[in-house]
């Protein structure tokens, strides 16, 4: 990797954000104008790429800067307080990109990574299905060879920003005669291809970034396979590990941050209240613990180490911190957090944060899944029974 003084990068990035960056309250609402929000995200990411401030740790041959983790932290520090649209790009930059860097062909890397970094292509993750969420290996979407490539039929769900995505990494079953973990393959899918239909799902927050995706006779080229045919579970495991790292690396993904809660307490004249000060101090300490742990995990990933169950610890802790911060904001805001005049002291923000925070304990694997991983891989507890694990998939109940 190229050696660069993080202070130099921090200075460059700080100057860029001071001139071009926007505060979160100055961007289109993703609830009321999701298309405008994604368009603003693309515009800013292209500007960052053109300014030489994108892909900090990605190899230079694929559009990145080839720098180290210290430079990445310096950039993050310079960007603090500005809108980075991380929710739009986390899947591409934190999950799809690393998988292509590890398992993709040289042609796939050169074709897809630079447009991904420049936001010419927004990516999504086509994994979960109505009958295969926690037990992802039970997925039933099928890919059948047709001589020139593959024909895919099936349904995916909870696909973030699928309706605004250009491409995605898709898991499909290519061999139903093998056990469920062994007959899966990962593909690059074109979200504009014939037969791909996306339907947004409305959430309690009013947002609709999740989607169900229908795949009806979708043709994928022979060069769309990522890794090996039948090697999809390895690719999925790699991607899910990167997902947990990405989510742990951004623990307070909603606008309700500890800094916002401190500002609220000051406006309410509660900054000197001993109980409020103690509560804020506790969530601040918890956030710092998560941030430091996330840096350790991210640093190991960037030098090629597998964080293993450490990623589950970070993911579990991050989700819990987010819920604690959102709950504290509601407590300090009081009745104004559940009924407010438009524009009055951020009431809408606190309500949004409370409704959004629980999703961070579900995305990337529920708390129950993370605890199972830790129980089995750290504590050495007996593995959960898995019905039909060694049977050919077509003989399992899920295949019917």
Characterize the structure shown.
The structure is a single chain. This protein has 400 residues and is of the alpha+beta class. The chain folds into 3 domains: 6-121, Acyl-CoA dehydrogenase/oxidase, N-terminal domain (Butyryl-Coa Dehydrogenase, subunit A, domain 1); 125-234, Beta Barrel (Butyryl-CoA Dehydrogenase, subunit A, domain 2), CATH 2.40.110.10; 249-365, Butyryl-CoA Dehydrogenase, subunit A, domain 3 (Up-down Bundle), CATH 1.20.140. Helix content is 44%, strand content 13%. It is built from 11 helices and 8 strands. It has helices spanning 6-20, 34-50, 69-79, 86-103, 106-117, 232-248, 258-267, 274-302, 310-333, 347-356, 367-377, and strands at 123-126, 142-145, 149-157, 167-173, 184-190, 196-201, 210-221, 225-226. The strands form 2 sheets. A 4-stranded mixed β-sheet has the order 1-4-5-8. The protein is globular, with a radius of gyration of 22 Å. The N and C termini lie far apart (50 Å).
Per-chain topology:
Elements: H1 6-20, H2 34-50, H3 69-79, H4 86-103, H5 106-117, E1 123-126, E2 142-145, E3 149-157, E4 167-173, E5 184-190, E6 196-201, E7 210-221, E8 225-226, H6 232-248, H7 258-267, H8 274-302, H9 310-333, H10 347-356, H11 367-377
Helix pairs in contact: 1-3, 4-5, 4-6, 6-8, 6-9, 7-8, 7-9, 8-9, 9-10, 9-11
């Amino acid at each position: 990797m190229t050696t660069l003084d993080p202070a130099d990068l921090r200075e460059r990035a700080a100057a860029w954000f001071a001139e071009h960056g926007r505060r979160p309250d100055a961007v289109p609402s993703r609830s009321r104008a999701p298309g405008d929000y994604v368009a603003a995200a693309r515009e800013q990411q292209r500007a960052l790429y053109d300014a030489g401030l994108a892909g900090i740790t990605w190899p230079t041959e694929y559009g990145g800067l080839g720098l180290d983790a210290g430079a990445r932290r310096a950039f993050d520090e310079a960007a603090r307080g500005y809108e980075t649209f991380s929710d739009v790009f986390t899947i591409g930059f934190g999950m799809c990109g690393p998988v292509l860097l590890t398992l993709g062909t040289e042609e796939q890397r050169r074709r897809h990574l630079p447009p991904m970094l420049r936001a010419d292509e927004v990516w999504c993750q086509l994994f979960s299905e109505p009958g295969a969420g926690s037990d992802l290996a039970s997925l039933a979407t099928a890919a059948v060879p047709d001589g020139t490539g593959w024909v895919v039929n099936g349904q995916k769900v909870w696909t973030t920003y699928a309706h605004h995505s250009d491409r995605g990494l898709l898991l499909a079953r290519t061999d139903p005669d093998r056990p469920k973990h062994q007959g899966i393959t990962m593909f690059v899918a074109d979200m504009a291809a014939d037969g791909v239909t996306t339907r947004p799902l409305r959430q309690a927050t009013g947002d609709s970034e999740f989607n169900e995706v229908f795949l009806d006779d979708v043709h994928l080229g022979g060069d769309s396979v990522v890794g090996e045919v039948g090697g999809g579970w390895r690719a999925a495991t790699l991607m899910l590990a990167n997902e947990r790292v990405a989510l742990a690396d951004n623990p307070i993904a909603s606008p309700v941050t500890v800094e916002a809660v401190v500002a609220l307490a000051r406006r309410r004249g509660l900054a000197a209240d001993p109980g409020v000060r103690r509560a804020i101090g506790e969530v601040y300490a918890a956030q710092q613990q998560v941030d430091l742990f996330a840096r350790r995990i991210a640093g190991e990933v960037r030098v090629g180490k597998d964080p293993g169950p450490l990623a589950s610890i970070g993911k579990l802790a991050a989700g819990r911190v987010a819920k604690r911060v959102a709950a504290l904001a509601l407590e300090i805001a009081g009745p104004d957090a559940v009924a407010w005049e438009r524009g009055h002291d951020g009431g809408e923000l606190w309500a949004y944060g409370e409704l959004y925070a629980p999703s961070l304990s579900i995305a990337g694997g529920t708390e129950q899944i993370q605890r199972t991983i830790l129980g089995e891989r750290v504590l050495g507890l007996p593995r959960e029974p898995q019905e039909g694990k060694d049977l050919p998939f077509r003989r399992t109940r899920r295949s019917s």
